Amino acid sequence: MKGGRLLAGLWLLVAVLFAASLLIGPAGLGLMDSLSALLRGEGEAVTLVMREIRLPRALLGVMVGAALGLSGAAMQGFLRNPLAEPGLIGVSPSAALGAVIALQTGVAASFTLALPLAALAGAGVAVALVLALAGPRGAALTLILAGIAISALAGALMSLVLNLSPNPFAAMEIVFWMMGSLADRSMVHVWLAAPFMAAGAVILLRLGRALDALTLGEDAAAALGINLDRLRLGMTFGVAALVGAATAVAGAVGFVGLVVPHLLRPLVGARPSRLLPASALGGAAVILAADIATRLIAPDRDLKLGVLTALVGAPFFLHLIWRMRKDLA
Predict the structure, then answer these.
(1) CB 238 within 8 A of CB 167
(2) 144 vs 270, which has greater pLDDT?
(3) Which of 171-191 are b and which e, b meaning 16 or more Cβ less than 10 Å from the residue's Cβ?
(4) Half-sphere exposure of 155 toward its Cβ, with a 13 Å CA cutoff?
(5) Nearest to 90 by CA among 41, 138, 133, 58
């Protein structure tokens, strides 16, 4: 019952923030004009703002937040570590590397989908490399070590691209994209990311029972009939689809997958199967709130979403480390 009330409250919070995201912006549109333009298409200029600018931004806020929150909860349940986060398997840095290469080579300017498609390709390469390095029956530790190695390599290659970039404007565009943002996105980005996120969400949500069993240990989970190899593959592909698609359309947005599951875990009884949907809704609420904040804090400046989430998430991460240190003392 407690979990049901929590989910209902999170659904309501997401709905309120989604509506606020649609109504808040520099255009200063009235409530009735905004609703009429969104629902009935009245007013050409207002309809353009609502349907082509604010609606895709709000939808992507929900999708990206849910993807990061759900991935973080799944990774923490799989590794049985509250400090785990979705980027551990190297998908996010590799997706960013694909986007950076597209920007540097000028391919991103050739057509609208070049940048997100390159990022998705980078995520796919990361998954293939992680699975190849970890092996068909690699343990969770091997999977994480492979992910860390790929993350380091992707980060080094991004630094190399920036270092050797002859075009300062391209380098500046790369840096801004890596900060993460939902601005200037369209429904094309929504439809591109939606299939990958939907597939990843279905995979991870179906792993709830297996993750519950895994809290007892790998041997106990195997005794309960959980196929650990299938769980590992499902986890890898599910997280890769969600995080890869989120990075492809929004850039690098950190700490959501770490902070949201940790905040909600005490409210669901520490059961991964209950934490997964709660974290998806919590992540959507956090990204929507952060994106609204970027418009309110600096309306005349392009404050990046990833910068704001890092400013809030990094101190919280340090607090987690400090509290764990005190518990172990």
Answers:
(1) no
(2) 144
(3) bebbeebbbbbbeebbeebbe
(4) 10
(5) 133
Predicted structure pTM score: 0.90
Contact predicate 203/237, CB 8 Å: yes
Residue 311 has, within 13 A of its CA and on its CB side, a CA count of: 11
Q: Give residue-wise pLDDT tens across range 197-238.
A: 999 999 999 999 999 998 888 888 888 888 888 898 898 899
Q: Tally Cβ neighbours within 10 Å of residue 12.
A: 12
> Among all chains, which residue has been given the structure tokens 């297996």?
210
User: Residue 89: CB partners within 8 Å, gap ≥ 6?
Assistant: 75, 126, 127, 130, 143, 144, 146, 147, 150, 236, 239, 240
pLDDT tens by residue, 262-275: 889 888 877 889 99
All structural domains of the chain:
2-328 (1.10.3470.10)
Q: Bin 167: left if φ > 0, else alpha if -120 < ψ < 50, else beta.
A: beta
Is pLDDT above 80 for 38? no
User: Taking a C-beta distance cutoff of 8 angstroms, is the pair 268, 208 a contact?
Assistant: no
